[in-house]
Design brief:
With 351 residues, the protein is mainly alpha-helical. The protein has 3 domains: 90 residues, Dna Ligase, domain 1, CATH 3.30.1490; 89 residues, no CATH class; 144 residues, no CATH class. 48% of the residues lie in helices and 8% in strands. The strands form 3 sheets. A two-stranded antiparallel ribbon has the order 1-2. A two-stranded antiparallel sheet has the order 3-4. Strand 5 and strand 6 form a beta hairpin. The chain is elongated and about 110 Å long.
Length: 351
Amino acid sequence: MKKLLIILIILVLALTGGILFYLAGTDAVDPTNKEDITVEIPAGSGASSIVYYLDEAGLVKNLTCAKINARIGGYDSLQANTYIFNKSMTFSEIMKAINTGDFEYISKTSFQLKEGYRLTQCAQALSEVTPFSKKEILAKWDDKVYVQELIDRYWFLTDDVLDKDIIHPLEGYLYPDTYFITESDPSIESVTELALNEMDSALSERKKEIKSSDFSLHEFLTLASIVTKEGCATEKDAAHISGVFVNRLKQNMSLGSDVTVCYIFDEDRVDLKVSQLNSDSKYNSRKVEGLIPGPISTVPAIAMDGVLNYQKTDDLFFYAGPDGTIYYAKTNEEHSRNVNEHPWSEEDLEQ
């Protein structure tokens, strides 16, 4: 009995010592050091290989204990990505983050596609956080072979975007939002998919309404982009402006929107030159009856819903005053009065 008791005590002590050794070996390398350490986990990496990546980064206190943890930890959904950890994290915390693809620890660079951005502005925003120049990004987005590949993948992209009069095929099809790049070596294609996937979500939510409207999807985005550029700061204005444009379309009038002229010259301004207003471009809605060839900017949800739920009105004109207030009118005389009563000063135009 004494021998058995001694053996039992030895086993308990050995087990306890082993557990303590294991816990110490998987503890933080340096609990006080929170300096960021970037670790790239390649696609297809298993738990055992990840141990070595973490060890090379100085995040493993004891290699043997780490291997044991990797084997018994139940890490069955390890996700490749570029992560940012620190030496104050335990090995288990690090592995759990990799196993769940915890967004908090994923290395990310953000960029913003704002509402009303032209594609040239989208390219500029992307160029500021990637190795690619604005020119390179636009060249890819205008590459008809690449665009055709996207048409084959995304239901909302159609051959309409390849019409000969379209300036940029993907204009209006990148959803405005803030995006996070989590790849260490992103491509133009992979980042473009982020914005197209968000557009997919936004349009899928409204698919039935768009289908039952009087517009094709391309026409819908075209009108919504014009509404966006006209300054739909509120849902009410988005619906009212849309109602005015719908009325003009039904009466075979030109839309008469100066923002479409601005698009031709890739700029935003109120005081357009006479030569610009007389442009023969098919994007000049002062001259062209009906809709222009395609969208002129990114389209937010508020503009989409404004077009789908446009206000029934008799108004045929609207005018945005210098303070942002929009004045509506049923006749040209009333419209002229609004313009004269709320003029833009030279200071306003400069701003």
